[in-house]
């Protein structure tokens, strides 16, 4: 499944935002302006100053909407949530080339980083859904992992947010369980 580099980057940003929730350490990255700037910068967002407290609060609220979209059982439910976000932000798609190549902006130029992220990631997820990708918006199958991911694999069979972490851990645990069963 290919939705394009720009939309793909926005989808990965949405995944990153959902997966910022409290980890084993009990730390929620969306409460830390420097961490949010780092997370967004990693995905190519221009964050000239650390996000304000208002931006952090808006991102926390938006994360809940994103989580609901990933957990939705129907594409209609996800579309409703994401369309509602775009309507609330009064998103108006505009083509721009301010950094040397054409791409879409969905939020007004004076919008804060949280609203720009919410508008762009909502539009990208809607594009994914429109191309038949709702069933590829998933939650990790590993026990004790609540991360989300989008399965971009050719055959759509990915089950874990990370094959090297959750996948390996799950397969190793299954192997140990089989070994214990044959030892008795």
Automatic annotation (TrEMBL):
Pfam assignment, any one: ABATE
Organism in which the protein naturally occurs: Umezawaea endophytica
Protein's name according to its UniProt entry: CGNR zinc finger domain-containing protein
Domain Zinc finger CGNR stretches: 136-179
Gene3D superfamilies named in the record: Jann2411-like domain
Domain of life: Bacteria
């Amino acid at each position: 499944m290919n939705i394009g580099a720009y939309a793909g980057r926005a989808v990965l940003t949405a995944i990153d935002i959902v997966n910022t929730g409290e980890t084993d350490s009990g730390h929620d990255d969306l409460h830390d302006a420097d961490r949010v700037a780092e997370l967004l910068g990693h995905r190519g967002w221009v964050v000239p100053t650390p996000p304000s407290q208002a931006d952090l609060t808006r991102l926390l609220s938006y994360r809940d909407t994103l989580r609901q979209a990933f957990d939705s059982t129907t594409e209609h439910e996800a579309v409703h949530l994401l369309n509602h976000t775009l309507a609330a932000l009064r998103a108006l798609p505009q083509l721009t080339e301010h950094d040397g190549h054409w791409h879409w902006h969905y939020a007004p130029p004076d919008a804060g980083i949280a609203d720009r992220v919410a508008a762009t990631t909502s539009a990208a997820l809607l594009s994914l859904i429109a191309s038949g990708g709702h069933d590829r918006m998933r939650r990790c199958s590993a026990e004790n992992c609540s991360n989300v991911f989008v399965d971009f694999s050719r055959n759509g069979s990915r089950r874990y947010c990370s094959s090297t972490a959750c996948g390996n851990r799950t397969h190793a645990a299954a192997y140990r369980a089989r070994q214990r069963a044959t030892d008795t």
